[in-house]
Design goal:
Largest sheet: 8 strands, mixed
Radius of gyration: 17 Å
Strand order of the largest sheet: 2-3-4-1-5-8-7-6
Number of helices: 6
Strand content: over 45%
Length: 260
Amino acid sequence: MNPFQTHGAFSWQEYLASDISPALDYYTQLLGLTISEMPMPDGTYTMLHSNSKRVAGFMACPPGVPPCWTYYVTVHDIYRLLEENELNLIVPLQEIPMIGSFAGFLDPYGAYLAVIQYNESSESDEEAIASSQEALTTHGAFSWFELHTSEPKAAADWYSKLFGWSIRKIETPSDYYIFSANGTEIGGIMALTDPEISPHWSCIVTVDDVDAVQSKATELGGAILVPAFDLPEVGRLLYTLDPIGIPLAFGTWAPQVSEG
């Protein structure tokens, strides 16, 4: 499944902050990634690369906007989506030259998410992560998206209606709802475990060695939310906060997951 062409798939992620330098230094050192810069009309857009693959963007935003990871979901008709749904728009519909149109909203439970309609197919873009399976095997790729929310069942139903996701519930110590786009499982929805943390989207990033990332994260000033642990038939996972306090998780996937 190509995320840039599939309605309802997560296709891009970017870090927003008034000063991106601390986060950029942290993530490049943590994951051994390289950077490139793309001129923009109002500044520079910085991208992270894992070898030849583009995995995330960093963009400076006006002072007063809280630092955050933001995630983009591909939609085929953004105008129709916005017309047919009463979304709480935080970022109004606007165009990115040569890329497409996007908007950002808060869901009914307080989590922010963006939607984007691309102008052109990404099939010929050799630097893009071209499939969900490739994301599961590429160090540094964002591969499994998770919503942490106060109302997981209600949120699952709401997003299913918005994007057409298929939802299945799995039994864990707390309910976990896996969602699929076009038949491919791409993420989960779970209850917040800390009432002081606001609802938010996060992601599990593929890494070659979770334990090495855990050690490096603390050396670089990050914090461990959930130490590395084994999840049977899934892999070894780690939940962290970067030095600025923004959540991001990491996973070394089990062969049956990464190999499909």
